[in-house]
Specification:
The complex is a heterodimer of chains A (about 675) and B (about 130). Chain A is α/β, with parallel strands linked by helices and about 675 residues long. Chain A has five domains: about 5-125, Rossmann fold (3-Layer(aba) Sandwich), CATH 3.40.50; about 140-235 and about 315-330 and about 500-570, FAD/NAD(P)-binding domain (3-Layer(bba) Sandwich); about 250-305, no CATH class; about 335-500, FAD/NAD(P)-binding domain (3-Layer(bba) Sandwich), CATH 3.50.50; about 580-650, Alpha-Beta Plaits (2-Layer Sandwich), CATH 3.30.70.3270. Chain A is about 30% helix and about 25% strand. Chain A has a five-stranded parallel beta sheet with strand order 10-7-6-18-29. In chain A, helix 12 runs parallel beside helix 13 (about 445-450). Chain A is globular, with a radius of gyration of 31 Å. By secondary structure, chain B is an all-alpha fold. Chain B has one domain (about 5-125): Fumarate Reductase Iron-sulfur Protein, Chain B, domain 2. Helix content of chain B is about 50%, strand content about 0%. Chain B contains eight helices and no strands. Chain B has helices at about 5-15, 30, 45-50, 55-60, 70-75, 85-95, 110, 120-125. In chain B, helix 1 crosses helix 6 (about 85-95) and helix 3 crosses helix 6 (about 85-95). The longest helix of chain B has 13 residues, at about 5-15. Chain B starts with a helix and ends with a helix. The chains are: A alpha/beta (about 675), B mainly alpha (about 130). At the A-B interface, strand 24 and strand 25 of A face helix 2 of B.
């Protein structure tokens, strides 16, 4: 005999304003099997949960239906409450009358009608629920951090600090990321290298941290606590264990005209190179596209010179397979390509540069040794125009640019303007802005200092067009406050290009089955309450791969992601989801359809002996599900032509009962 | 009953198919405009004044005939507002009225000289109505 309890939540006015909750409770109390129906203002509150617990005990309920918000929000809460009252937690069903009803409807009468139908479906389902017992899965106590910028480094350091082993995979030959390219950091103007390189060294020397530089994640299998990851370690043609980083090869290599990506193409490097002096690992790498020996087999100079015998032209890519309990995405950002912004003459003039190039021009280790010289003729620029929001805050689906605010540009432009005026007080500096957005500790003060103390000309308006004429850049812009069109003869123009997620993020998300938004930023499990977790269990997010961030925010988020990883890794066992597929061996015809559709490779086929009615024994090929690997997606149950596959907790029978209840 | 101004605004928005609310007041249209110095009201002001319903001054302004219809503002607006289309719609509101022709066909030979950009000529024709 079923004894079902129904609990209808008002969710303040979220549900009660659009749905007549007492009518819902009254209607559902008449459903078969329902012995108790109540409404309450906040079912998830302590007293709301007590209401459920007391009813389970007093009425000896066999099933519970809660009409409330999405199960993504509070299913776990209510299951826990039921369990504490002695009811199997899988005997709880949620009817989502908020997201799928009250929030999307306006008419109270029809919304109430729909809420009753949704409740009825849940009652029909819970009547067929069976108590389930979750199994346990072990946890591999090692984490993988993908990306070796400040986000990845900080996450790895924090995880290692808690005593867990952690690997960093970085696609470039060195860790350090974008921060390594920066000169000073806002709002305190400490030098990026001074605060970053010690962390890079710390990461390389920490015995818990392994760094796979010049490597990429190739394949990801498994699930939370038990990921198997294939890492491709690209051939760098230099033996990492032998190279001492002396740099002799990088000086003598005869190929010396390769654009230096670390300095954004503003100077040149050799075919064998170390990205920058503080690189970690400080090991040379040969650019296979430019090396004469690797291309034509003629040269071999570096090999002859290397005292350590580290050069190895025969080195090949290596595939490493490791097991991990948790994975952190920290793939970072890239400035967008400005090829489509013809109006700013970016591809026409060498003196129209991006802000990241400006960082390199101001950096002591940059192409000009930290002296601000413009790229075309190495002269000091006397008039500099900074243009903000280049490609940020554009219309959705625009031909060029991004819809979001890139967040960091206002602050770094203020920094650039301030540093320029400090070092070269005879320079005229203009900043064209749409809005100056400087929320953050000591941020607005910083921007005001640039304007008030350093005399940077902040102009409200946008640059419309830039033409290179002679050795000048003719800048035409509007000054909205003066209601004028300005014409400035500039020597250097710096464009604050929008930032976008690194190109490697999208394919990585596919490997991780982690979701992304339309801009290719990773989505978080909850935008407010679970900001560093991906909706995919065991995958965490750190830094700009989740959205534009400055360094303080990135470091804070990196620590938060690390603490989530530590929380996972310090468990010996994880509770497995019991709602998994299982095969009815007598129905299975051995066709392999389910094996082919399973995205988790949870299904294998075995040959099993069956006793036939005529007392003979027949060997048949049947499907077998590994419950630890199955995620309960249900793809196999749909694909199976003989209806041999079924999901615990979501059986075909239960789904039909729900549909029947809705259509009744 | 809507007042006349309200009706004109509606007509302008309908003809231009421009959503003036998309404007984020960056001023790039006016920054890029080659006819800026000739104009009393500038592209961003056309958009703003139509949005606020302050259309009367635009109807009486010479600015309507200074716009080259070069569409630089349309091309470069980050929000896809298309200011030139608003200017065009305001202009049509005026020249479609009886006796409000800006240009007579006989005037055209006199204004052509070697300096005049082709675009200006094309847009001048466009302003011509019988």
């Amino acid at each position: 005999m079923q004894k079902i309890g129904v609990f209808v939540c008002h969710c303040g006015t979220n549900i009660a304003a659009t749905v007549d909750v007492s009518a819902v409770a009254a209607a559902l109390s008449a459903e078969p099997g329902v012995v108790f129906a109540r409404e309450y203002q906040y079912m998830c509150s302590a007293s709301g949960q007590d209401l459920i617990k007391d009813a389970i005990k007093e009425k000896e309920l066999t099933g519970v239906v809660i009409c409330s918000c999405s199960p993504r929000m509070h299913e776990a809460t209510f299951r826990k409450a039921a369990a504490s009252a002695g009811l199997n937690p899988y005997m709880v069903e949620i009817a989502n009358i908020r997201e799928q009803c009250s929030w999307v409807h306006k008419d109270k009468q029809s919304a109430t009608e729909k809420a009753i139908i949704l409740g009825r479906a849940a009652i029909a389902k819970v009547a067929l629920n069976t108590p389930l017992k979750p199994g346990e899965i072990p946890v591999t106590k090692r984490a993988l951090v993908i990306g070796g910028g400040i986000a990845g480094i900080q996450t790895a350091l924090d995880i290692a600090d808690a005593g867990f082993e952690v690997d960093i995979v970085e696609k470039k030959p060195t860790i350090g990321g974008k921060m390594a390219q920066l000169d000073k950091t806002f709002p305190t103007l400490d030098c990026a290298a001074c605060i970053l390189t010690p962390k890079m060294v710390e990461a390389s020397q920490n015995e818990k941290i392994r760094i796979y530089s010049y490597s990429q994640v190739e394949a990801v299998g498994g699930f939370v606590g038990n990921f198997t990851v294939k890492i491709r370690k690209k051939a760098r043609y230099v033996d990492e264990t032998k190279c001492t980083g002396c740099g002799l090869c990088t000086e003598k290599c005869p190929v010396k005209n390769v654009p230096n990506e670390f300095n954004l193409g503003m100077n040149e490097r050799h075919a064998v190179y170390i990205p920058f002096a503080q690189a970690v690992p400080k090991v040379a790498v040969i650019d296979a596209d430019c090396c004469r020996m690797l291309k034509d087999g003629k040269c071999g100079l570096c090999s002859k010179l290397c005292g350590a015998g580290a050069i190895d032209y025969k080195q090949e890519d290596e595939i490493i397979e490791n097991k991990y309990g948790a994975i952190v995405a920290a793939t970072g950002y890239e400035p967008i390509s400005l090829d489509k912004f013809d109006e700013f003459a970016y591809s026409k003039s060498k003196d129209v540069i991006t802000s990241l190039q400006f960082e390199r021009l101001m950096n002591a280790a940059g192409p000009t040794g930290g002296v601000l010289l413009r790229p075309s003729d190495n002269k000091h620029p006397k008039t500099i125009v900074f243009v903000q929001c280049v490609g940020s805050r554009c219309e959705a689906h625009a031909k060029k640019g991004k819809e979001y605010c890139s967040k960091i540009c206002c602050m770094y432009t203020a920094k650039h303007a301030m540093l320029t005026r400090e070092k070269y007080p005879d320079t005229d500096v203009y900043v064209f802005y749409i809005d100056v957005r400087t929320p953050g500790k000591n941020f607005d003060e910083f921007y005001r200092r640039a304007a008030e103390e350093y005399g940077v000309h902040y102009v409200k308006g946008m640059v419309g067009k830039i033409c290179a004429e002679g050795d000048k850049l003719k800048v035409q812009a509007s000054d909205l406050i003066a209601d004028k069109q300005l014409h400035i003869d500039a020597d250097l123009v710096v464009l604050a290009a929008a930032i976008e997620p690194d190109k490697s993020a999208r394919p990585l998300a596919t490997l991780l089955t982690a979701s992304m938004d339309t801009n290719d930023f990773f989505t978080e499990a909850h935008p407010k309450l679970r900001p560093v977790e991906s909706p995919t269990a065991g995958v965490f997010l750190s830094g700009c791969c989740q959205g534009p961030k400055d360094i303080p925010e990135t470091v804070a988020q990196a620590g938060a992601a690390a603490s989530k990883v530590i929380g996972l890794l310090c468990k010996d066992k994880l509770t497995a989801n019991p709602c998994v597929a299982h095969a009815d061996e007598l129905m299975c015809n051995g066709c392999s359809t389910c094996e082919n559709v399973c995205p988790y490779h949870a299904i294998t086929y075995i040959d099993k002996e069956f006793k036939m009615p005529d007392r003979t024994v027949k060997v048949r090929r049947v499907a077998q599900v590994n419950p630890a690997v199955c995620q309960g997606c249900g793809a196999c149950t749909v694909a199976c032509p003989s209806k041999a596959m079924d999901l615990y907790g979501f059986s075909g029978k239960q789904i039909y009962a729900e549909v029947d209840a809705i259509c009744r | 009953m809507k007042d006349k101004n309200e009706l004109i605004k509606e007509q302008i928005l309908y003809q231009s198919k421009v959503n003036v609310r998309k404007c984020m007041r960056c001023g790039k249209c006016s920054g890029t405009c080659p006819a800026y110095d000739e104009m009393e009201y500038h592209p961003h002001q056309f958009v703003y004044m139509v949005e606020t319903g302050d259309i009367e001054p635009l109807l009486n302004s010479e600015s309507l005939y200074k716009c080259l219809t070069c569409f630089a503002c349309v091309d470069r607006c980050p929000r896809g507002v298309e200011p030139a289309k608003i200017v065009e719609a305001v202009r049509l509101t005026v020249i479609r009225q009886q006796g409000k022709n800006k240009l007579k066909p006989d005037d055209i030979p006199d204004i052509i000289d070697g300096e005049i950009p082709q675009q200006a000529l094309v847009s001048a024709y466009r302003k011509f109505t019988k």
